[in-house]
Amino acid sequence: MIHITQLNKVFRTELIETQALHNINLSVAEGEFVALTGPSGSGKSTLLNILGTLESYDSGDYQLDGQSVTGMTDSALSALRNEKIGFIFQSFNLIKDFSIYDNIELPLRYRGFSAAERKQRVEQALERVGLAGRRSYLPGQLSGGQQQRVAIARALAGSPRILLADEPTGNLDSLMARQVMELLEQLNREGCTILMVTHDPEQARRAGRHVQIVDGMLSDATVYQPLVAQAVNQ
Amino acid sequence: MRNFSYYLRLSLHNIKRAPLPYALTLVILSIGLGVFFSNATLYYWMNRDPLPEQSHTLFFPRINAVEQACDSCLTPLRVLSYKDVQKLSNSAIPSAQAGMFQSGGYARLPNTQNGPTPVSIRVTQRDFFELFNAPFLHGQTWADNDARMELILHYNAALKFFGRTDVLGQQLLLDGELYTIVGVLDNWQMLPKLYDVNNGLAITPVEEIYLPWETAYNLGIKSNSTTQSRDSRNYNENFAVNGREGEFYQAQFWVKLDTPAQQDAYRQFMDNLVASEKEAGRHPRPNGNLLHNMLDIAEAFNERNRQLDAFAVVSVLFLLVCLFNASHLSLNRYMASQFEFSLRRALGASRLQLQGQLLTDVLVNGVLAFVLALLFAVLMLLLINQLLPATSALNNWQPGLILLMFGVALLASYLVTLYPAWRASYSPLNQQLKA
Predict the structure, then answer these.
(1) Which candidate, A35, A161, B35, B258, has a CA 20 to 30 Å from the CA of B83?
(2) Tell me, what's the ipTM?
(3) Which chain B residues are within 8 Å of A81, Cβ to Cβ?
(4) In this complex, how many residue pairs, one in chain A and one in chain B, have their CB atoms less than 8 Å apart?
């Protein structure tokens, strides 16, 4: 599903250069649930942004669903994001004065779906996250956990090939965080590929695979070691 | 179309989000456009071609025929004498020609107790109406250029005196003389009135009554605008003789020269005329013949309205200031929406799709600014008409002018939206979406 090789990213200012990512190699297979952890400033959000094509990289190659992203035009990248990637952000990133329905429908608007298909997809996504009765609510009328479920519904509505989640429970209390994690796990069981950035070791353990990044480099010790196997060893 | 209706809803939604900053932006833009529109309206009327179908064939000949010698006097007077008109009328080259001047008088219906009413008069010859495409509603022009007690009325004058237009054969008293009406013009106007640009008359309405040239000389009727006498005759006495024989300059003279060959031939005719006059011991001044096309006449007589030109420059500068300020306010609005731009981009909107949204914003802003600017423009025109009463005939809008103003409003809206929207849509996506 995802295949990146020798990927480098440098942030430059007038005074300094910072190597944010250094020779990253990572593959994520279809149906995997991968947790990406690391200390603050280690480069995990940068990596996630690059995987989501929200940010460019300096060298290396990135293939998503068999398609190389390198050198793609802006409109091709937009279409790629729209069709193949579902984003779940830490701060939900819902438009406050749009209804839940309108928020979920937003990416479908840019896909060229008919009104009937958009409606069907939004209804299905709302059913999936358990918010079918809240379609006309505004985000501010929902709890944080519910808002994140709306964000997940928005990510799911376009039937993406992969969900990229950036600390999806970072702004939630433990109860809501657990509910959101359960929802992600359920989606993964249904076949959804997920790559999640998290600080929380507990949540990382619940993912199918745990990848750690430190100082812009993936840690060899944890790469490609499914947590299920780790648990058996322990 | 489906996208357009969505973009339209978003534009209106964005307005509702921050109505006050939006209203402020719109008002600033509309004031700038309103001032610009009002001035553009005046400028359009002042500088338009009033007879596009034949203005290129209409010419005003001037000869330097003043009878006092003056070697340094190279430029002819801007008005002609009766004799000048007579001499120039001898050419058969023009397909139409007419001498003329403006006058005024008091008219009333005979056999009524109503008091006389002031009227504007154009003293002219039979070809006047052909020269300037003045259409007849009833009757026709005079049979020839001889003196006759016959009038032609403008549509408005017919309604003013008779309450109707079909008044052929009716009589009217003008300054105590009884005339028979032989023609009624349709509701005709010519703006700018380029056949008489003396004393800034180019923007006044056309005259109400048309009086035969020879009749006016017989009755001692003179111009009420520019007149010059260059000899010692008493022009208040026996004008029928003095006005015709003396050096009394008051007339315009227009000829219709349909082809360049005719124009060249007419120039040659003027040169020959001056040469023969000199041979006869007249025309002591240098040959200063001029043949002005109608569209050049205001410039040639230095009768362009410089105040309007100055207003035009000021209004353009004012519009630029308003655009700058509106753009600044617009930038604040769009920067506040930067998160939403980034989110839409992250969720798959291409820059082209965002441009579609921005162009819809431009359209909505343009339409609203246009409507509001028209209101401001009406107010500005009223103010300008008060300050410059001569401009009162120039304050209406034709469809072409309105379309042009709408185009300017859209362009202004685009300029105000362009930079802010560009800034907002090109910001790094990841920065806006990070918690």
Answers:
(1) B258
(2) 0.87
(3) 346-348
(4) 68
